[in-house]
Write a structure and sequence with these properties.
Helix content: 55-70%
Number of domains: 2
Number of helices: 11
Shape: globular
Distance between the termini: 33 Å
Largest sheet: 3 strands, mixed
Length: 211
């Protein structure tokens, strides 16, 4: 798949996320997400900051965080989340077609970030995922392909076979982990909430690796 195709998918996911953000109530925005200690709105703040934050402020925050990328990322997300939800949605639309390509993980990583964090938001709110099959396959290939730095430790998918029940997708050899593409994506990225949706003799091992 070409970078142009991926960029089109990313732009559409950002616009869809903007629509979702505008539809949420203050109580929903304050709900705890699947992503560590972040609220739904802080997850949105992270996704906005990933594409809209100016390089200067982001670098300064990294320095102040002792060059700990995860700590700086959390601070940047929290800072961005102080903005009104409508403003965050507007920033997502304004930067929907931003061509920035992250190092190492590339556009496939960027698309995966949007899809995974989209579920970090939707699952706790009981909202349907509405993930697109072609985009989900891109993310699944990325997560088991060895380039998902920061998404999946290399040993997590090693020696396991993953099979999607709703997509024409499978990967790996070994004990089986089976489920919907959405549940596989979330399980691979360490979301405990999705592990109960998986079946097969490899799930126990995956659960151990996630823990």
């Amino acid at each position: 798949m070409s970078d142009m195709d991926l960029m089109g998918m990313i732009a559409d996911e950002r616009r869809r996320l903007a629509d979702l953000v505008e539809s949420l109530t203050p109580a929903q925005l304050a709900t705890r997400s699947l992503c560590d200690a972040w609220t739904v709105k802080e997850v949105v703040g992270h996704l906005v900051a990933a594409v809209a934050a100016a390089n200067g402020p982001a670098l300064l925050l990294l320095v102040r965080s002792g060059f700990n990328i995860h700590r700086a990322n959390a601070r940047l997300a929290a800072r961005m989340a102080h903005r009104p939800a409508g403003e965050l949605a507007g920033m997502l639309r304004a930067h929907a077609e931003n061509p920035f390509r992250p190092p190492i993980v590339g556009h496939a990583g960027q698309l995966t970030d949007l899809q995974v964090h989209g579920q970090d938001i939707r699952r706790p709110l009981g909202l349907p995922h509405d993930l697109r099959g072609d985009r989900l396959r891109v993310s699944l290939d990325f997560l088991v392909g060895g380039r998902a730095v920061g998404f999946v430790p290399r040993r997590r998918p090693a020696g396991l076979r993953f099979e999607a029940t709703d997509l024409d997708w499978a990967s790996g050899t070994g004990p089986l982990v089976r489920g919907t593409g959405e549940a596989l994506m979330l399980g691979l990225t360490g979301r405990h909430a999705a592990l109960g949706d998986l079946s097969g003799d490899g799930v126990a091992e995956l659960r151990t690796r996630v823990s």
